[in-house]
Write a structure and sequence with these properties.
Blueprint lengths: L10 H10 L9 H14 L26 H46 L1
């Protein structure tokens, strides 16, 4: 592959080479040069096909807005119920501890009065 196609060529020949493309493969077979050209065309940085889409009439690029589904509200209701149950269990546990504490305090007062 030669980087300067103008060496040893007339102006007309070099113009023809430049119009064919920027790459010149001197001393290569036509098959090799075709493979190389195909490679460079494929390796070029074109934007993906998705970005080249053109809108037709009546079509929109935006996705439809998702409606609130009943499944989500059911799930949130279930989560809320579970949270309420956990809170009530925790509250009951603290009430039992408070009741036990009061019983212990009453027992200590009774023992103190008996000692006096």
């Amino acid at each position: 592959m030669e980087s300067s196609p103008c060496e040893g060529l007339s102006q007309k020949e070099s113009d023809e080479i430049y119009t064919q493309g920027l790459l010149v493969f001197t001393g290569s077979t036509e098959e090799d040069s075709n493979f190389a050209k195909q490679f460079w065309v494929a390796a070029s940085m074109y934007p993906p096909n998705e970005s080249q889409l053109v809108l037709s009439r009546g079509s929109s690029q935006r996705l439809p807005v998702a409606r609130s589904s009943k499944g989500i509200s059911r799930e949130s209701k279930v989560n809320a119920e579970i949270l309420k149950i956990q809170e009530s269990e925790e509250k009951e546990k603290y009430l039992q501890k408070a009741k036990r504490r009061d019983e212990i305090l009453q027992l200590l007062r009774k023992q103190r009065e008996e000692r006096i």
